[in-house]
């Protein structure tokens, strides 16, 4: 699931790409294969632990809500989750979340620089227990990503010197223990389409910066204000070549997540 869909589209006449490509950055994906690798919990809260190749937390049964934050402030050899996100080329941040027994009452992703911070609530996207939900939040600007927090004018300043990334989960009152897991934390570029390749009645659209296992949507339209779905596909690789019908009058194509 994506919090917002970034618009990346093409005009076939002249092949016009918006926006212009920025710094290329390889994705950083924390899979927690062997350890938490610098991700930890805030002091005085229920601890996040490495379990089953994921970061997991178990809240004891309680008639009161409880919360805890999985936090990253730095770790030897890992530089991509803090520092200058723009210099890294990061255009999106995301993770996979699993609620085992109960749904969280809150799930918040926060990016901080000193006393300034931007955050986004993602728990409305968690609609079932026992299944992984994947989030990807654009970093283009405050509005596009659905971020809250400080004024929009500070967004670039914060992203240029991130010192803390945190994911806070709040559990409801429970009659049994409540377990949650986080995996596949990623910072990366946003999905893009490269130059379209017309061929007879078909259009071939090379897609890049895809997240494996996520479903994407190709839309087409005669102008930037009228879109229809041309194709949906499951990403099985970083790059894929998507083929759609070359429908008369459809000159714009864009990629997003449902």
Per-chain topology:
Elements: E1 9-11, E2 16-18, E3 28-30, E4 40-41, E5 49-51, E6 54-59, E7 66-72, H1 85-88, E8 92-99, E9 106-113, E10 116-121, E11 132-138, E12 148-149, H2 155-159, E13 164-171, E14 178-188, E15 192-193, E16 197-199, E17 202-208, E18 215-223, E19 226-234, E20 240-245, E21 252-256
Describe this structure in words.
The structure is a single chain. The chain has two helices and 21 strands. The chain has 258 residues and is mostly beta strands. Strands 3, 5, 6, 8, 11 and 14 form a six-stranded antiparallel sheet that branches. A hairpin with a 4-residue loop joins strand 1 and strand 2. The longest helix is centred in the middle third of the chain and has 5 residues, at 155-159. The chain is globular, with a radius of gyration of 20 Å. It starts with 8 loop residues before the first strand and ends with a strand. The model is unreliable at 1-24 (pLDDT under 50).
Bin the strand percentage.
Answer: over 45%
Task: Specify the helix fraction band.
Answer: under 10%
Structural category is mainly beta
- Counting DSSP E segments of at least 2 residues, the number of strands comes to 21
Tally of helical runs: 2
Largest sheet: 6 strands, antiparallel
Termini Cα gap: 7 Å
User: Uncertain runs with pLDDT below 50, 5 residues or more?
Assistant: 1-24
Principal-axes shape call:
globular
Please, what is the oligomeric state? single chain
**Rg (CA only):** 20 Å
**What is the chain-wise order of helices and strands?**
EEEEEEEHEEEEEHEEEEEEEEE
Give the integer mean of the pLDDT values: 88
